[in-house]
Amino acid sequence: MNCKHCGSSAGIARENELNTKECYTLCEALAETKCNTVSLMGGEPFVRKDWHLIAECVKDLGMDLAIVSNGLLIPREIDIIDRLETLVVGISLDGMEKNHDTIRKKGSYNSAIKAIDLLRERNIQTTVITTLTKTNFLDLPKLRDILIDKNVNWQIQVGVPFGNFDPNLVIDKEEYYASAMFIASESIKNKFEDMPVVGAHCYGYNSHLLPTGKKWSGCTAGISTVGITSDGSIVGCLSMGNNQFLEGNVRNLNFVDIWENPNSFSYNRHFNKKDLGENCQGCYYGGSCKGGCNSVSFHLTGQFHNSPLCLRRIEETILDVKLSKREKIVHLFFKSKNEIEKWPN
């Protein structure tokens, strides 16, 4: 599709993609490192004729299988997806019909809806993935109304400027906070209903006001997740860009050796609070949050551990949320013990 926000600059296959046998070897190495889940994504995984052979290898080795798709080829592949007992299928849905088709291609909205319905008919767990930009920001309530009765999960993530994405379409801090409010509100309303709504790793950093769900303990790239490009390059997270921050290639080194190398993914594995950027320096949560999502951080500021899209920072700098006395003492203590004595009673 060559989508307008695609981080892969998709449209033309990479030269020298891994062949089927190389993919089998890679899957064996993943299993050796006790990988739990392998997610096939793209681009579009179903355009690869041997995708089902790779998926079967994943399953045969005892790992769970997940798939992320644009939905167009789901009708052709649904029987195989069902037979493989796929853990979850993610379907990209980036707005209502006009916006989705503008971002992707004409007719793709109806194909995505058809794919969602077909997956649910087979009782296959389905997650709708929406990449949020200025183009589709106002579509969120309308999408909610479309999805509410489809018994799906819904993940919302922020589009960041790499690959095809126009930097002018990145949502601003106010829109980011408004979308976080939307996610929090829907999560509360649908807690015991049929549509869990979650934010991706670009949401949920120690808000004063909003429930942030599961505790955020920093970027998972190279810690509990890894990205593998179609030509075998290893990167901590594909959302950081798949032509940089490469730790090696499985054609030159076994994946196990790359993963177990103590110097791999050093930006995360060897993180120190001194690595925090200006947006995060001095924050009490810096040691645990590690500056938020590194994809957002790098693509918006040019460095890791420095995300400007932080709920807590937005609340304190834009919304002027007042800290409680206890929070002030904690913050001041970690800045300077002497400052506590200056703080008025």
Please provide a brief summary of the model.
This protein has helices at 20-32, 51-60, 74-83, 97-103, 108-121, 140-147, 173-189, 255-260, 266-269, 286-289, 294-301, 311-317, 325-335, 337-342, and strands at 37-40, 64-69, 88-92, 126-132, 153-158, 197-199, 227-228, 233-235, 246-249. With 345 residues, the chain is α/β, with parallel strands linked by helices.
The run of helices and strands is: HEHEHEHHEHEHEEEEHHHHHHH
Structural class: alpha/beta
Rg, nearest Å: 21 Å
How many β strands by DSSP?
9
Specify the overall morphology. Answer: globular
What summary fits the major beta sheet? Answer: 6 strands, parallel
Overall pLDDT confidence: 88
As laid out across the biggest beta sheet, the strand order is 1-2-3-4-5-6
The end-to-end span amounts to: 61 Å
Strand content: 5-15%
What ranges have pLDDT less than 50 throughout 5 or more consecutive residues? 332-345
User: What share of the residues lie within helices?
Assistant: 25-40%
* Number of distinct helices: 14
